[in-house]
Structure prediction request, 341 residues.
Amino acid sequence: MRIDRLVAIAALSTFTACDFLHDPTFDTERADADYRTAMDDYQAGRLGPALKGFTKVCAANPSNASARFQLACLLQDGEKDYLGAFCAYREYLLQQPKSEKAKLAKDRLAVCEREVAKLLASKYDLNAIEKEAQVAEGLRKALEESKEQVAKQQKSLADSTRRIAALEAETARLKNLLRVEGEAPLVDPANLSGAKAVVAAEDDAPVAADALAEAKRLLAEDETNDAPVNVDEAKSLLADDPEPPPMIAQDPDAKKKREAAAAAKREADEKAREQKSVKYEKHPADGYYVVQEGDTLYKLAIRFYGRRDAWKTIREANKAIVSTDGRIRTGQRLKLPPVKE
Prediction:
């Protein structure tokens, strides 16, 4: 504490030594009795009385710039009250911005500002807040990078999906070629003149005889798991496929055989539908049916009409009590329209 007093007294001696350079208008301020008393206490090292004295002078006459400057120096050097000194220097500069001590006041004001910043940082842990802000900024940048990565992955996924679709289409074409190979023997390209000898099949357009060789090569490069391993498997997988394109030579009777098989299948399906359509229960005598638990319009349509699409007929006949979505409730009395022969 004694050292602080000595520093304050030395600083005061420096400041008062420059008084003769000041404008004579300061003489009036320094002639104040309370100012002289406070200055005597300051020079004698009585910092407590000096502080009270300069505070009294500033309170009685706020425009006394000399007392304001001495009070600021005393607060900074003797009391270490950097916030109070900061405010006092600011007041002084507002009153005397062009005085000889203005530059000194600005320099000492900057020192007080730094000290106040240190105190605030220590009290409110501003360093931790700054670190948290840095962490938040890092997280924000990481999030932006993640969004960019997601966009790239989505684009890559879209490209992969398109490639997979193309491979699946190519695989289907190759399977079709292999099925045709199983139905008709091919002419050996080695026995034909030219690398692209042409064969014809009944009404089909001619194609290059080396098409099957290319198909086999592409199939061998296919990495999908569902590619056929031999002709028999290809035929089994594609038994229900439509007629293959005329890409290679075929048995002249193959087309007729396929058409005959398709016609037989259609005839069999038609007979099955006819047999199923006549297998239905007779309507109740009064033409009404009481809904039982588990009944639906679909079940009633099959039961009394032999076909599922008859549910609409039942619904239309009972639209006053059946909702548009066709739901019915146990105990409802439904009218059953007669069967149209």
Q: What stands out?
A: The chain has a mean pLDDT of 76.
